[in-house]
Amino acid sequence: MTKKESITVPSGYDANAEDDVHKCDDTKPQIGAISYTNSGKKYTINVDVTAGTWGLSAIEITPCGWKRALRAQKLPSSSKQTATVELDTTGAHTVSVTVRNSAYYTATSTGSNQV
Fold first, then answer.
1. Which residues lie within the region annotated Disordered (predicted)?
2. What count of other Cβ atoms lies within 10 Å of the Cβ of residue 12?
3. Yes or no: is domain 30-114 CATH 2.60.40.2550?
4. What is the pTM of this model?
């Protein structure tokens, strides 16, 4: 058993059929500013995300190369998202952010913060 998201295709899906959903002019999701605030060793990671043509379906905020995301949830629209992490070490810490919309377009961005 795993908490990793599993994606399946609907019954009758034909991978060779013409794609009548995605369009060349679809706007992809975007990740804006990644910023940080802290109180002692607790850091709050703030991320601005935009859905694009399709609604947002998930965002993952993964700090410091962790194997699992801090935040992975369904989102109703473009928004500011936050996640809080406690850091025990000083130095540069990198955060990876991935956002996906309901048409499965994705965007990934990284940011770093000196602690």
1. 1-21
2. 6
3. yes
4. 0.71
